[in-house]
Specification:
This protein has helices at about 120-125, 140-155, 165-180, 190-205, and strands at about 1-10, 10-20, 25-35, 40-50, 55-65, 70-75, 80, 85-90, 95-100, 105, 110-115, 135. Strands 1, 2, 3, 4, 5, 6, 8, 9, 10 and 11 form a ten-stranded antiparallel β-sheet that branches. Strands 7-12 form a two-stranded antiparallel ribbon. It is globular and about 45 Å long. The chain is an alpha+beta fold. The chain has one domain (about 1-205). It contains four helices and twelve strands. Strand 2 and strand 3 (about 25-35) form a beta hairpin. The chain is about 25% helix and about 40% strand.
């Protein structure tokens, strides 16, 4: 387990890793990167999950502007129904607008609330009229839940309690957290959202 945070010249960076082992799944490892800068508008995130040392999930968001991020993702064969994603995420008036390609096919653009409380399994349709259906083995999904919850707990344990952050720094942290939540959408895993909240708390503590 590793949790490292630092703030240099206005840029907050978080890097965290952990792992779990389940007899019927194997060893899962996860790493989380969360970067934000209030002055430049940068808010980048990365979630990487490996199974037995091989890529299972890689989801990266990179800020294009203060309100727009580009999401790229790749998935291992154990995640059925989705292999790749290349999406544009725009935040406006407390809502998140998502458009782009999944599996090389264009999706029907859709909107989430600021909490991103919607998931691809229910909401994403392709412009050819079909619906995206992501399928994960139940035991693997339980292991993923355990892994991400563990990482979120470890980040929270490493976060000091400090005073109220200034509004500019708070806004930058929240922008990065919104991009982080959007990156959870391929699965709508509540533990993924908790991981984003833990990263947000660490960012706010560094303000």
């Amino acid at each position: 387990m590793t949790v490292l945070t630092r703030k240099v010249k206005g840029t907050f960076s978080l890097f965290a890793t952990t792992s779990v082992r389940r007899n019927n799944v194997g060893t899962l490892g996860a790493s989380k990167v969360f970067i934000t800068n209030a002055a430049t508008g940068v808010h980048d995130t990365l979630l990487s999950v490996q199974l037995g040392g091989c890529n299972l999930i890689t989801i990266k968001t990179q800020s294009v502007s203060r309100n727009t991020s580009r999401l790229t993702a790749s998935f291992g064969k154990q995640i059925r129904g989705i292999t790749s994603a290349n999406l544009t995420i725009t935040q406006r008036n407390g809502k998140t607008f998502i458009q782009g390609l999944i599996n090389g096919k264009r999706i029907v653009p859709f909107t989430c609330s600021s909490s991103c409380s919607c998931g691809f399994r229910k909401t994403v349709k392709f412009q050819n009229g079909t619906t995206l259906r992501v399928r994960i083995d139940k035991q693997l999904e339980l292991a993923l839940n355990q892994l991400l919850l563990k990482l979120a707990r470890e980040i929270r344990r490493s976060t000091p309690h400090r005073g109220t952050p200034n509004s500019i720094c708070r806004a930058a942290c929240q922008a990065a957290a919104l991009a982080c939540r959007a990156a959870c959408l391929p699965f709508f895993l509540p533990p993924c959202l908790r991981l984003c909240e833990a990263a947000l708390d660490a960012c706010l503590a560094a303000c």
